[in-house]
Design brief:
alpha+beta, 3 helices, 44% helix, elongated, membrane, transmembrane helix, PH (Pleckstrin Homology) domain-containing protein
């Protein structure tokens, strides 16, 4: 099972990356000299393209039979399902999966509502302390 990013968030990264590239390419069209800011825009575009690809491929959260994994570009948090102690919702409105050593926070504003419903159903089947609903 996967918790999917909202499509708007994923494609917004792509649009920002394309916009950055187009701004730099417009300097070539109007024949202005390239400066350090343009190189920074290309690095920013590369970051947004990478973010788009990573979010499109790995999504927000992956739940397998053995573990719950939240992957980001730089790090990966994984909690084995056997080590999950409790699920709860914090004051900010985020869902938190607490393991023996790690916590994974899930921002419901970044996740598709249908995926969030499936996640709530998944948590209701586990035999751990719950303070979600």
């Amino acid at each position: 099972m996967q918790l999917l990013f909202k499509k708007r968030r994923v494609y917004l990264n792509l649009i920002i990356g394309i916009t950055c590239v187009l701004l730099v390419l417009s300097k070539f069209i109007i024949k202005e000299p390239i400066n350090w800011l343009d190189y920074a825009m290309l690095v920013l575009a590369l970051y947004y393209f990478t973010q788009y690809y990573f979010n499109y491929k790995f999504q927000y959260l992956t739940i397998t039979d053995k573990e719950i994994v939240k992957q980001r570009i730089i790090y990966k948090k994984a909690i084995p399902i056997k080590e999950v102690r409790r699920f709860y919702r914090n004051k900010a409105g985020d869902y938190v999966i607490e393991g023996s050593k790690k916590k994974i926070k899930i921002n419901p504003l970044e996740v598709q509502p249908e995926s969030l419903r499936k996640f709530k159903h998944f948590t209701s089947r586990l035999k751990v302390a719950k303070e979600i609903f």
